[in-house]
Predict the 3D structure of the following.
Amino acid sequence: MNAWIVWPVVVPLAAATLSVLAGQRMARVIIGSATVAIVGALAGLTLQVWQNGPQRHVIGGWEPPLGIQLYADGLSVVMLWMSTVVGALIGVYALGYFAHDSGTTGTAATGEHGDNSELFWPLWLFLWAALHALFLSADIFNLYVTLELLGLAGVALVNLAGGQLALVAGMRYLLASLLGSLAYFLGVAFLYATCGVLDVRMLSTRVSAHPAVWLAIAVMTLGLLLKTALFPLHFWLPPAHANAPAPVSALLSALVVKASFYLLLRLWFQVFSVVLPPVAGQVLGILGVLAILWGSVLALRQQRLKLLVAYSTVAQIGYLFVLFPLAGGTAWGAAAWSGGTFHALAHACAKAAMFMAAGTMMAALGHDHLHELAGMGQRLPLSMFAFALAGVSLMGLPPSGGFVAKWLLLDAALASGQWWWGAVLIVGGLLAAGYVFLVLRQAFAPLPADVRYRPVPRVMELAALSLALLAFLLGLMAIPPLTLLQIGAPFVGGLGTEALP
Amino acid sequence: MQGHPAANIPLSEGQPGGCSVRRLLALFSWALVLVLAWAALSLPSHSPGLVDFVHAELEHSGVVNPVTAVLLNFRSYDTLLEVGVLLLAVFGVWALPRERVWGAPLGAPVAGPVLHTFVRLLAPLMIVVGGYLLWIGAYAPGGAFQGGAVLAAMGVLVWLSDLAPLPRFSRWDMRMALLLGFATFLAVAGGVMVGGGRLLEYPRLWAGSVILLIETALTVSIACILILLFLGGVGEKRRATEGVREREAKQ
Amino acid sequence: MNAAVLYTLMGVGLFSIGLHGFLAQPHLLRKVLALNIMGSGVFAVLMATAWRGPQLPPDPVPHALVLTGIVVAVSATAFALALLRRIHTATGRASLPEDTAA
Amino acid sequence: MSWDTALPVLVLLSSLVPGLVIFFLREEQSRVRTALNLAGAVVKIGLVGIMLWGVYHERHYETRLPLLPGLDLILRADALAMLLTTLSAGLWLVTTIFAVGYLEGSPHRSRFFGFFSLCVTATMGIALAHNLLTFFVFYELLTLTTYPLVIHRGTPQALRAGRTYLVYTLAGSAVLLLGIVWLHRVAGPFSFTQGGALSHLGPQSHGTLLVIFALLIAGVGVKAALVPLHGWLPVAMVAPAPVSALLHAVAVVKAGAFGVVRVVYEVFGIRFAADLGVTTPLALLAALTIVYGSLRAVVQDDLKRRLAYSTVSQVSYIALGVATPGSISSIGGIVHLVHQGIMKITLFFCAGNLAETLGIHRVSEMNGVGRRMPWTMVAFTVAALGMIGVPPMAGFISKWYLGVGAVEAGQGWIIAVLAASSALNAAYFLPILHTAWFKHPTGEWKEEHPRGRFEADWRLLLPSLVTAALVIATGLFASTVMSPLTWAKLIAAREYQP
């Protein structure tokens, strides 16, 4: 059996189907074994990519352009690991979260949670499958279907919270998501009309400087930017991420926005690279800068913990787009490429941990008002610690994954002579420190005597802590993922800090 | 309809933006039309397309209708995920907070002897039409979705005219019906790999039969899904605790 | 100017009308409908690519893509409508707060 | 992994592991906590002792871990590293004893001692770091682990101080990071090298190197409290006394000063730096800091604030010595790294002792305290005299070498700065001594703790006496084999090798 590549998609889909049919206890067993199976398949795939380079799987035996093929290079594998590890730990967290939740529904403090929390599991599995399908697909129409799968799963998960805020946020998210998909779809139609193929590899050889191609690039990019919530198209993100149940917030902020970013990377650097003028990358970079500044400043002004974390996502997405203006040159392209994608990875771990820790505090207190979190360091030391470690990665301090990403991007910025991008990275790190410590200082404030506090399942705290530790220590194990990222990357060699001539 | 507030959502709600905003928007839309039209006019008059590839392999696809060949063989992976989207919509509707009011006797006021007789005559016919559409898909336009849609329409019609109660999808067998299509499709997709094949690589000789099997299962499931989507999550999935909570809510 | 170009132009026209409606109309139902109009526009553009001249058979691939697209649109629309009903029940309104305020 | 590669890691682990375990201890498990702390400190001293012996006999202890493509995390015990590791390891033990006594019965001790150990781990990492990347990693860890110590009390005042501390240190490290990445772009990956690693770069990159030097010095200058980057240090005085002792003598300020040494000697190299023309501005900045800190210290009534401004002033002796060309100045600067640590920690121990035993926080409250707490005040007197530069205390040695070095370098103005500074030192220390010994007590002290067998709790008294004895010993036995002065001479000689 050497087709490891298909199982990360097939297994969660099968598990989702079975878990709807099975009883609650059986469903747990199914989901657990599915997770193990996915990890195993991914390990197999990683080994294949590591040893033999990018892997292809021609579905149905129909070679492109007629059929669809799956494609996995280093970037796909890193993204798959990201979604598998983060997704699995969010699943562990959700076990505790929904158990705690269902034990206490009806109390006014938790807010109006929906009564359909067992639906979290199939939806989560569908989301997982959609992510994996997206990371592996090499067909632009198939990617459209995975985008829709992802968007619907995301919105459905937000609505699990059930309250009025969540419903409205879910609708806004749904509309934005559908609009983004349709724009992408229009691009697909134009590309098919011009090039006559849907396969990514074949497209890359057929695109030319043609009005229809430019239009396709424009609408696809805009659609994906909307889905990635890059400033100024981020309006839907904070309410949706802040009002969803905590495990869902973690899934959306950590993984879902990365999917459309990934797709954008693929399209820009592997399909459209020949026809894109450099100024296009600069535009995305500027939007990224604005996102960093705007998101950070708004995060500093929030009164609610989860909104603060959500605005932090808006800011952190900005970092991803600093990649685009920097990945132009050959000497530093590899550093920018690795830095940007590594940032996606580090942010996924850190942000998921942060939302999970925030959710734990919210579950314990019944609210997430920032100024009433005083003394949480004594009540929930593990969660506060997880929040702090994740915060270190967001600030880009060593030895976290965020630091490695910042180093590489900074390196690329200086190497390309565009030092101003580096300055923004540094300012962004300081702003991140501002809003992270806004929360952390509450940990040391004296504990008020009259606060109602409900114990939370330990598993929630531990899941968040594991992810936070992963984010914190990612910098110490950066070499394997960075090496993997080079496999099949558009920029070969040149990664490192060799001197300029 | 029962006077429920949600039953009549006034369409006039909300104020469209200010005058200048509207003007700007109109300007933007016209600009968009022009840009899109420019790109559209620049398209090659004969797009290259994949028609030759399809016809070259059509005889191995197991069906005669090229569209069905694309949908269920050449690009069957798309269709697999598309059925996933359908299911996901159902789960998404279920995940919404439950609506209590849109009760079962919705159809009662409009039901009458003429309607009853008409539906009684129509229902079997629709089942036949649905089956026909499913079968003809291999040769001509048609297929699982079309068949399933007709069956779903029949179900809705029967329910609206109050001839039969809604099926309860909390029941295990109804859930099976709901998931049958996706499960079959997925099982085939993975099952063909056991012998060392690739995902969704049907055995050449059996391709036609396999496609028919998948489409049959899909027809049943799509009918269920469409009925559920029509209902929008009403009358489904009551849990034991719910009655208690409703009483609490009333107090 | 052939039939395909006409279809394409109609498609982009529908797309633009839909987008205008989506942005201009605060009512959520109208927004959902506008998205469907946009979708129809894309379908039309895609259908036009299937045209290969009066004698030749059409390209079946765009047909299949459009069928898939329709199913996706149906699912999304059904879900959006259900969500819309819940919002109306919960808030008594059928528009997003920011649009109502404007 | 052989013993030689494991040793630097073990030195770190000897405080990291106890620190992490302590976090999970319950508040009332104070015996286990103390045992862990002391065991860690003793093991660390043992390991550092072995390392010291080995380095003296030219053995190489080095650990590498690939961190970034082409860049390793390197821990290596070289002569300069041993100076700071020995100082930190030794002072950690006494500070731990002091902190156990000082914090007895107060809340959140597990949290405190956990971060306390992590803080020492970070300092050890800074000492052993063998390239800028490694240095930066531990430099940042130090920031993160000291923040909880600064705001330990959780009062609004402490939280404000913590914010100031973070604003300064994080901004500093951002600048430092920019400098480091840029330098790697210009020069490629390199390790700390005696005599500098950049002299091969041609004149076309000298402009860039000037900017990078400014960035690096600004980055480490925040922690070294160079004027005008010193604003956080007096504010951070709200922290408990052991933390202040740690901040001023062992960890934060010392890390900054150590960074200055590394950057000038082992990144740029003193000769190359002098060629670039950056040493004179640095020396001027250091001189300014010395005078400014002393002037501010004179007018402070709060004892800990006065000591804090004294630190601002005294630490810059190190920068001054480093920035003055000539091996004798270097010896003075490097040896002051150790001497300042011992003297300042003694002073802070005594200040904490006074505060904890009698509730004295201001100089004006110290009338006649020498009679009530003679041992404490003897220790304080020794350290204060050392700071002024009275022979044969440690401070005299530093100032002597700095002065002779200035003459050697032909920089007469440095003599003037040293003289002025010594006069100011006297101006803010001698009144304290006078008040304590010769004035009559104004009234009964409010006794915070019942009078023990000694004038104060022995855990508070012993550390200050030990360090005071060290102040005399390092001065008296400066020319013996293992004295800080001998090490400083060794380092300076290698730096100035032709």
